[in-house]
Write a structure and sequence with these properties.
It is a single chain. The chain is mainly α. It has a single domain (2-242), classed as Orthogonal Bundle (Fic-like fold), CATH 1.10.3290.10. It contains 10 helices and no strands. It is globular and about 50 Å long.
């Protein structure tokens, strides 16, 4: 099943690559829409109550009445973290511990500065999850193991990115902001591999959490790979539809 999915994704990515370079305006509108959807959904998964339209307005520099400053900073910070991730990819910088901590520092900037980019020094629980993260004294060691496993990984880039996400969340190295950071790391890895990044939808939050718990308690990655793969196919389909690909059965897009 995974092999068939990987083959389909590779074929879609190859088809998209055949349209490159994309027209400048198309590329700009795709990027703006993707940043908006990624920021909205990633924050919504973690409980941010700003709507998609409200998130768009905050990204444009306008404050929403009745919403907390934390929720505003979560939007602003996430956009800055995306900018940082894109710079890492553009400059072909290596993936290491400094990158992980820098992404997290941006996520918690002006929200929890003392914990931003700093591994936790206390034990934590993940609400609603069966898995309990490791003792805080093991975090640094397990993060080193995570990076070693990442650099030694042999397999499809989608599987590597999904594994990076799930392994990171299993360790839960920070007091807060782990989910947002994990999704940024996953897309960083996909983009470094020349692949289209993905958006995990807030509407799929339950399936997302259940798939992660299955990885952490049963060492079963298939459901999580399938979820990420589905998001990948959707992302590729929307872009292909917008750039004028016909006859691919992918439908149309409402992206602006």
């Amino acid at each position: 099943m995974e092999i068939d999915m990987f083959t389909k994704i590779d074929a879609l990515q190859t088809k998209l690559n055949s349209f490159r370079p994309l027209p400048k305006h198309t590329l700009k509108s795709l990027h703006e829409q993707f940043v908006l959807e990624w920021t909205y959904n990633s924050n919504a998964i973690e409980g941010n109550t700003l709507t998609l339209k409200e998130t768009k307005v905050v990204l444009e520099g306008i404050t929403i009445g009745g919403k907390s400053m934390r929720e505003h900073f979560e939007v602003i910070n996430h956009k800055e973290a995306i900018d940082y991730v894109e710079a890492i990819v553009a400059n072909n910088e290596p993936f290491n511990e400094h990158v992980i901590k820098s992404i997290h520092q941006l996520i918690l900037k002006n929200i929890a500065n003392d914990n931003a980019g700093v591994y936790r020094k206390e034990n934590v629980l993940i609400a609603g999850a069966e898995h309990t993260p490791p003792d805080h004294i093991l975090v640094a060691e397990q993060m080193a193991d995570l990076l070693e496993a990442y650099h030694q990984f042999k397999g499809h880039p989608l599987e590597r990115a999904a594994s990076l996400h799930s392994d990171f969340v299993k360790i839960h190295p920070f007091v807060d902001g782990n989910g947002r950071t994990a999704r940024l790391l996953m897309n960083l890895d996909l983009m470094k591999a020349g692949l289209q990044p993905v958006v995990i939808k807030a509407a799929d939050r339950l399936a997302y959490y259940e798939a992660l718990d299955k990885v952490h308690t049963q060492a079963q990655l298939d459901d999580f790979i399938a979820l990420v793969g589905g998001a990948k196919e959707e992302a590729l389909g929307k872009v292909l539809a917008l750039v004028g690909s016909s006859g691919n059965g992918l439908g149309s897009t409402n992206d602006e």
